[in-house]
């Protein structure tokens, strides 16, 4: 992990097109401004983790539903196809 000290109105640059600026410092809190292309998603960590958790839950539910649908389809096909 890279650790840098910055003062108000100072910034860091990541790659060629991301800039993070310290806009305000009050006690234990700082405000950051982030300049980045629209194609880059930027989230607070706690929000990003919540989104990931929801995506995993939705994916798992979707897989479970698909397995149930396949079982139902398999049973339906078996009941329609009679062995010779």
Please provide a written account of the structure.
This protein is an alpha+beta fold and 84 residues long. The chain folds into 2 domains: 8-40, no CATH class; 43-84. The protein is 43% helix and 24% strand. The chain contains 1 helix and 3 strands; from the N terminus they run βββα. It has one helix at residues 45-80; strands at residues 11-14, 18-26, 29-35. The protein has a 3-stranded antiparallel sheet, with no helix packed on it. It starts with 10 loop residues before the first strand and ends with a helix.
What is the average of the pLDDT values?
A: 88
- Name the helicity range: 40-55%
Reading side by side through the largest sheet, how are the strands ordered? Answer: 1-2-3
Coarse structural class:
alpha+beta
Tell me how many strands there are. 3
The shape is rod-shaped
Order of helices and strands: EEEH
Number of helices: 1
Oligomeric organization of the protein chains: single chain
Task: Note poorly predicted spans.
Answer: none
| Overall radius of gyration | 25 Å
Largest sheet: 3 strands, antiparallel
Measured distance between first and last alpha carbons = 68 Å
Work out the strand percent.
15-25%
Count up the domains.
2
């Amino acid at each position: 992990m890279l650790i840098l000290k910055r003062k108000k109105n100072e910034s860091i640059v990541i790659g060629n097109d991301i800039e993070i600026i310290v806009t305000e410092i009050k006690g234990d809190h700082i405000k950051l401004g982030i300049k980045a292309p629209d194609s880059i998603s930027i989230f607070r960590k706690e929000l990003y983790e919540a989104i990931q958790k929801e995506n995993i839950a939705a994916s798992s539910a979707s897989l479970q539903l698909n397995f149930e649908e396949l079982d139902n389809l398999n049973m339906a096909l078996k009941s329609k196809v009679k062995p010779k």
